[in-house]
Amino acid sequence: MKKTLLAALALGLMATTSAYAFQEAPMLAELVEKGELPPVDERLPDNPTVVEAIEVGEYGGTWQRAFKGPGDRWGPTKLMEERVLKFAAGPDGEVKLVPSYIESYSVNDDFTEFTFTLLEGLKWSDGEPVTTEDVSFWYNDIFLNEALTPTFETTLAPGGNPLTVEVKDERTFTVKFEQPYVYFLEILAQDSTVGPSLDRPSFIQPAHYLKKYNDHYASEEELAALSKEHGVEKWTDLWGSKGPIAAWWQNEELPVITAWKIQGGVTGNTVTMVRNPYYFAVDQEGNQLPYIDKIEHRLFEAQDAFNLMIVQGQIDMQMRYVTSNDFTFYMENAEKSGYTVSNWKSANVWSLVPNLNVTDDVLRGLFENADVRKALSIAVDRELLNELAFSGLGEPRSTSPVSGSPYYSEELEAHWTDYDPEAANALLDSAGLGERDGDGYRLRPDGKRLQLVVETDQDAYANLLELLADNYRDVGIELLPRVIDRTQWDDNRENNNFEVQLIPFDRLTVIPADPRRMMGENNFAAQYYIWHETGGKSGMEPPADHPIRKVWASWGKASVAKTREEADAATNEMIAEFVKNGWVIGLVGEVATPVIVKNNFRNLPEGLVEDNITRGVGLARPQQMWIKQ
Amino acid sequence: MLNFVVRRMLWAIPTLVAVSFISFIIIQLPPGDYVTAMVAEMRNQGEYVTAAQEAIMREEFGLNDPMLVQYWRWISKIILHGDFGHSFHWKAPVSDLIWGRLGLTLTLSMLSLVFTWIIAIPVGVYSATRQYSMFDYLFTVFGFLGKGIPDFLLALVLMWIGFAWMHIDVGGLFSPQFEGRPWSLAKVWNLMTHIWIPLVVLATGGAAGLIRVMRANMLDELGKPYVETAYAQGLSERQVVWGYPVRVALNPFISTVGWALPALFSGDIVTAVVLNLPTTGPLLLQALKMQDMYLAGSFILILSVFTVVGTLLSDLLLAWSDPRIRYS
User: Per the UniProt record, which residue ranges are transmembrane (chain B) (predicted)?
Assistant: First the structure.
C-alpha cells in the first residue's frame, strides 16, 4: 500500500484555474503592458500554491527593517525562505507542515522513499521553468560533486549513507534512503539541502544559470577566466558560503523562487529585496503574492541605534533584535510613533550549562553527581530572576520542550524547578561538601573553596548572573560571573576550557528536526558529543554506564524507526532522559518576544512561538503580509 | 626644501612596511580565527557545520598557511595591483567597502575639525587675555565638562533631546527614504539635518582640550617682552594679540594637524557606532571583532598611511609657518 499524503492545496481553486483570472501587483501590470513581462497567468504555475492570507491585502509599499551586517543574513532570509515543505502555524497556533513549491508528496510505508512532484509551470525569477533537470543538476553536479560537497550533512546522510535521487519525469522525483527516516520532512522544513547554508531551496538549483560555473560543464580555462572575473582564486570559491555566484544575498542575477529577491547585494548601508514577478503563490482570491513591493534593511551596529529607529517609527515590522529588556521603552513610545508591540513567545530557555567534560577533576566529579546538579537547580529563585531580569515576561521552567511543542510535558517542564535552598543545602552536605571556610563558602573535597566561573558573552544578561550569585551564596557556593568576548566564549567551548556557561538553550519546539543540542553538541557535553559523532576518533569517551549513552541510544532508535509512533516514543525517551538528568539547568524560558508592528502593517498573527526550527518570523508567512496605504 | 620632502617620503616607506606587518600580526593574536567566529555564528543560527567542513573552510580561506605567507599574499597584491583583497565577512573586495564610506567620513571629520578650531581658538584667546574673568571661569567649567563627558554619552543625550523634544529624525546620516538614493538637493538637506549631532559631539570633545592648550600657550606668550614692546609701539590690543602671540600659540595646532587625519578616518568609533553613522569606524570595529583580517589590516594600513602623510604635512606647514625650523 502506498500512503499518499496529498497536500491540502486550496482544492477549490484547482479545478477552476483556466476560468480564473489571477490578479497581480500594479507595478507588474505596468511591465506587462509595456511588454517587458508575460501576463500573470503565464508567469504563475497552472495551480499555484495558495497561501491563505489572514485578510486579503492591498499591493504596494516598502517594508522597512534593520539588519546587522552580512553575518545577519538570516534576518532577511527568514522572511522568504522556500523549502519543499514549510512549517506553518494553524489557526490554533499548532505547527504543521505545508507544501510550498510542490503539488504533492508521498512517503512509502517504511519511510525510505519520499516522492515529490513540482508544481506544473513553476518558474525561476528569470522566467525559466523549474524542472527535474534542476533536481538532477543539484544532485549530480553539486551534491555528488566532491569539489563542492566534500562532506555530507549528517541530516542528508543518516547512518553515513547519503540520499539518492531518482528522477521519474519532468516534475516528479524520488529521494531514497537506505534506512527508515521518519523525521526527514521536518528536517527538510528546517534545513536546506545545500550546506552549510540555510538560504537555499531544497533539491533544486537553477541549472540553466549555474552550469557555466560548474566543472562538469565548463572547461578548466573557462572556470579560471570566470574566477578571475569575479576576483576569486578558485572556481569553487564562487560557490557555497564564499560564493559570489551561488548565494542569493550576494548575486542579484541568481535565479530564485522566493517571493522577493536581493537587489544590489550586501555591501552598502541598506540591503534591498524586491518582488519576484514569477513567485508561485497566490492568496485565497487569486492575487499573486507577495503584497509588499520591496523590503529595505538598514544597517545598524549598536542596540541603542536600533531602538531609536524603532521609537522614531522607522521600522514597519520586526522581531529580530527587539529585546524584552527594552520592552518598557518600546511601549512608552508606541503611541507617539504609531506602532504596537505584539508578542510572540521564544522557544529559548535561559540556562546554566555546567561542563561535564571540565578539565578540573574535582569539579567534573561534582557535575557528574545528580544530587549536586539537583542542588544547583533548586537553589535558584526563578521567580525572582523572571521579575528582575526579564520584566516578568518569561516563566520559570526547566530546559525542556516549550508549550505548544508536540513534545511538551508538564512534568518535565517543572523538573527540579521549585525553589528550596534548604533542601539544596542538605543535598550538598550529603554530597561530601559539608565543610565550610571562614566566609561561609563550602570546601571541595580537595580543600579548595567551591567556586563556579560562569561565562556569558551577552553583557545585557550580566544582571542575571549577579542574581544567581546571590542565590548560590545562600547555599555556600561562590559564583564568579565573567562577561567575555564572543570569540573567546566560543573558543573556550571549542577547546573545553570552561566551567559553566550561561546560554539561551534553543530549538525546543520540533525536537527531532534538530536533536543535537540535547545530545550534548556545543554545550554540556561537547567533548562526549564529538567522540560520538566522530566514532571515537576525537573528543572524550564517556564512561560505559554514563546516562548520556542512553540519550544517544534513544535518538539512534528514533532515527531508524519504521513508524512515526515508534520514532516519537523514542524521541520522548531521549527528551525525558535529557531533562531528568538535569545536566542543563533551565532558569527562565518562554520569554515574550516583542514584535514591533506599525499600525498600518497587517496580517502578522499574534502569539506564535519563535524558534529557529520553524524559521523565526517565517512561520507567519511574510508573503501574505501587507501595508495599508 | 625639496630635498627635505623627498627624504621624509622615503623614510615613510619602511615605516609603513613595519606598521603593516605588525598590525597584521596583532589582528591574528586573539584566540581563534575568522572561521571560528563565522562557524560559531552559523551554529547559533541553526546551520550545522561539521569539524571536517570547518577544516575545509579554513583551507579555502588560506588560514592554515604560515602567517608570513598570508601576509605576503595580502601585501603583494596591494603593492603590485593596488588590490586590498577580499573581506571574508562581507564577501566583497575591501576597496568596495572602504572607499564608499571614506567620502562621508572625510566630510564629517573635516567639518568637525573646522568646527573645533572655530570654537577653540577664539575661546582660548579670550580666556588667556581675560584670565580669571567670569567668562574665563565659565569656559573652564565647560571645557572640563566637555573633556570629561564621554563622547558616546553626549551622543546618546543629544539623540534623546533631538528625538524627544525637537521631534527630529536622529541616528545615521540620512532618513530611510534617502539612504541608498542618488545625491540630490533634498538629500544634501537631509544630511544637514542629521550631521549636526555628530558634529557637535566630535567638536566639543576636541575643542574642550584645545581650549586649554590655546589658553596655556597664550599665557606663556603674553608675558614675553615682544608683546610689551608691541604695546609700547602703540598698537591696539587686537593688533597685538592676533598679530603675534596667537600665531606662535598656534604652533601646537599645526604640528598636530597630521594626527587629525587618522583620527578622522577612525572617526571616533564608539560615537559612530552609537550614532549609527555610515562611516569607516564601525566597519573597522566589526572587522576586528570578526577577525576579518584583510579588511582590518587594510584599514590599519590606510590609517598608518594617513598618519605618515599627516605628519609630513604638518612638518611642512610648520616649516612654512615658523621661520625657526631648519630643514636638516
Answer: 9-29, 98-125, 137-168, 188-211, 253-275, 295-320
Mutation to test the B interface, candidates A199, A267, A297, most B Cβ within 10 Å: A267
| Closest-CA residue of chain A to B167 | A312
Contacts of A215-223 spanning 24+ positions with Cβ under 8 A: A215/A145, A215/A147, A216/A140, A216/A141, A216/A145, A217/A141
Q: Which residue in B156, B286, B290 is closest to A304 by CB distance?
A: B156
What string of DSSP letters covers B272-325? HHHHT--SHHHHHHHHHHHT-HHHHHHHHHHHHHHHHHHHHHHHHHHHHH-TT-
Helix B34-44 to helix B51-60 angle (10° resolution) is: 140
Task: Report ipTM (2 d.p.).
Answer: 0.81
Question: Three cell numbers at A453?
Answer: 566561573
Cell of A584: 542543563
CB contact under 8 A, B180 and A265: no
Q: Which residues pair with B92 in a beta bridge?
A: B87
CA-to-CA distance for B156 and B159, rounded, in angstroms? 5
CA-nearest of A113, A214, A208 to A166 is A113
Give the sign of the dihedral formed by CA B204, CA B205, CA B211, CA B217: negative
- What three-state secondary structure class fits A378? helix
CA distances from A235 to A245, A620, B81, B94, B213 (A): 10, 38, 21, 20, 58
> Which pLDDT tens digit goes with each residue over A123-142?
999 999 999 999 999 999 99
* B237 CB within 8 Å of a chain A CB: no
> Considering only CB atoms, which chain A residues are within 8 Å of B48?
153-155, 191, 195-196, 514, 516
Instruction: Select the residue of B31, B60, B175 nearest A487 (Cβ to Cβ).
Output: B31
Is the link from the previous residue into A196 a cis peptide, with omega within 30 of 0? yes
Question: For chain B, which ranges sit under pLDDT 70?
Answer: 44-48, 260-261, 263-267, 323, 325-328
Distance CA A511, CA B28 (A): 38
- Chain A CB within 8 Å of residue B38 CB: yes
Residue A111 sits at φ, ψ, to 5 deg, of 55, 40
CB contact under 8 A, A231 and B36: no
Give strand ranges (E) for A435-486: 451-456, 478-483
- CB-based burial, A217-227: b 16+ in 10 Å, e otherwise: ebeeeebeebb
Backbone angles phi, psi at A296, to 5 degrees: -115, 135
Dihedral angle sign, alpha carbons of residues A23, A26, A27, A29: positive
A87 vs B195: CA distance, rounded Å: 45
Q: What average pLDDT does range A205-215 have in this prediction?
A: 94
Cα–Cα distance between A547 and A576 in angstroms, integer? 12
Angle at A323 between CA A319 and CA A324, to 5 degrees: 115
Pick B281 or A372 by higher pLDDT. Answer: A372
Contacts of B113 (CB under 8 A, 6+ apart): B206, B260, B264
pTM, entire model: 0.85
